[in-house]
Amino acid sequence: MKPTLKKLVALFTVLALLGGMGVAPRPAFAMTKNKEEELSREFMKLVGKHFEEIRDPMVTVYIEELGRRILATIPDPQFDYRFHIVRESSYNAFAGPAGHIFVHSGLFDAMEREDELVGILAHEIAHVECRHISQKVERSTKIGLATLAGVAAGLLLGVGGAAAAASALTMGSVAAAQAVSLAYSREDEMQADQIGLGMIEKSGYSAAGLVTLLNRFRDRQWVGSTEVPTYLKTHPASEERIGNISTWLEARGGGPAPRASTAKRFGYVAARLAAVHGDPDLALRRYATRLRVAPQDPVALYGYGLALAESGNRAAAIEHLTAALKQRAFDPVLLGDLGRIFYLDGQFDKARNVLEGASSAAPEHAEGQLFLARTLREQGAGQEAREILERIVATLPEYPPARYQLGEIYGMQGRLPEAHLNLGIYFKSRGDLKNSLFHLKKANALATDGETRRAAEVLLREVDKDKREEDKEKARQEG
Q1: What is the side-by-side order of every strand in the sheet holding 82-86?
Q2: Alpha carbons 270 and 272: distance in angstroms, whole number
Q3: The domain containing residue 425 runs over which residues?
Q4: Range 294-315 average pLDDT
Q5: In percent, how much of the chain has pLDDT > 90?
Q6: In a domain, 330, yes or no
Q7: What whole-number distance in Å separates Cα of residue 277 and Cα of residue 115?
């Protein structure tokens, strides 16, 4: 079938607009990669101090896998990317220096499909590949690197513009004024869209999700200026921008359908963020509404069950997760959370039975494994519990609850160097540098094998440096 005149016009418009799309240009005037990595380290320190990162494996593994799928479309990514979920209720996502991509947990409340999330991630990756942050920072020579990192953190994390960023992140008036120059320009957004659309398509998704989400954000502006999603403050969704993406999409016939393989996981992750890491009362209302429309919807049953558990009604939570399992028998996510709730309710025999089933179906499900280990420990099977926890930390070394549980079991078994090492890592991940130093010093002093001592020494240097900087900053604020 021959293309219509309308489609031909659309196609030529897009080709003119997005010529050469797919590989980001390498700007000559951006800062060096080494300098951007240095900026990134300062940036991440500020993020860690002022915002809580969610380290739930179900969430982190999902966002990492989705991000890696998009990155696979880039022949030579400029950085080693990391993907983070920040516990914030606002609708926002942003790219930090050197490939750190952040999504606010609240953004999932505004999304309905996985292709919407893919569109956001691809756009943020494009900002990094185009070196938009580094270009602006390189032009900003009036303030130091640490202060610039603070300005970028305040602005990109959406704490309310330049003045609020300066206040929230304890910076001066020069930094506040400089923040204005770090906002994304219309040209930056256009270029990020151009590159991001190519990534979306090559990843096997449709850009329709991005258009849908941007339209949803834009429509919220009618509520009032205070209700404008934070994302729009740093990523303006102008009619021109939405129109260009829509034209590009039309020229390609709409693009492929969402991937069914991970679409189910998106629903689970969104429900978990809302119920476990958000406001459980709000989640109860949201999923109760969904259940009135679709009483057998397994994701709605799952979200409602999690919210019930967080609210303390474990009996009703078990009832709803069991109902969800009738729709999706042997689902490891449902089994894992059902077993977790049995454990928290003190029903250890039922917890073990369900969690062993989850473990057989999906041994990679970290939280299910964690609660299986905790159940085994309660039942006196400490050796089995330790082996499970060792496997978890080998795969997910930054999963704090597993480090804590493993430290406890090592201590019970008299393996004190390993106990202190794992507890030191746990407290470091929680930002408790004082307790981390205590345990790492103990691990270093008690270690009899070289591997444990070397690990403790490396971490000791890192934590000691961070603690001295923390004390210096505290003294500066008090003085």
Answers
A1: 82-86, 100-104, 93-95
A2: 5
A3: 414-479
A4: 97
A5: 55
A6: no
A7: 22
Look at the chain and report how many structural domains it folds into.
2
Query: Last residue of some domain: 206, 235, 251?
Result: 251
> Distance of alpha carbon 79 from its chain centroid, rounded?
17
The whole-number pLDDT of residue 230 equals 53
Alpha-carbon distances of 229 from 215, 286, 431, 464, rounded to whole Å: 12, 19, 29, 39
Q: What is the mean pLDDT of residues 245-252?
A: 83
User: In this model, does residue 9 exceed pLDDT 70?
Assistant: no
Q: What is the pLDDT of residue 170?
A: 34
Q: How far is CA 28 from CA 25, 33, 130, in A?
A: 9, 12, 11
Would you tell me how many other CB atoms lie within 10 Å of the CB of residue 356? Answer: 16
- Both tokens of 197, joined, read 């659309």
Query: What is the C-alpha separation between 417 and 73, in angstroms, rounded?
Result: 44
CA distances from 191 to 23, 129, 235 (A): 11, 10, 12
Write out pLDDT tens, residues 275-292.
Answer: 999 999 999 999 999 999
Domain end residue (candidates: 220, 251, 282): 251
Q: Which of 37-51, 252-266, 297-311, 335-349 is the least confident region?
A: 252-266
Q: Could you give the CA distance from residue 303 to residue 274 in angstroms, rounded to a whole number?
A: 8
Span 161-195, pLDDT tens digits: 333 433 433 333 333 444 444 557 778 888 888 89
**Average pLDDT score over residue span 43-51:** 79
pTM strictly above 0.85: no
pLDDT band with cut points at 50, 70 and 90 for residue 129: very high
Beta bridge partners of 82: 100
Phi first, then psi, for residue 372 (nearest 5°) are -65, -45
- Extract the runs of DSSP E, i.e. beta strands, from 345-435: none
Contact 459, 417 (CB under 8 A): no
pLDDT in tens, 385-431: 999 999 999 999 989 999 999 999 999 999 999 999 999 999 999 98
- Position 455 in a domain: yes
10 Å CB burial of residue 363 (0-12, 13-18, 19+) is middle
Check if the beta carbon of residue 386 is closer than 8 Å to that of residue 414. Answer: no
Question: Is 205 a member of any domain?
Answer: yes
The C-alpha atoms of residue 27 and residue 227 are separated, in whole angstroms, by 36
Alpha helices in 252-381 (DSSP H): 260-275, 280-293, 298-310, 314-327, 332-344, 348-361, 366-378
- Let me know if residue 190 belongs to a domain: yes
DSSP state of 184: P
Type of residue at 476: R
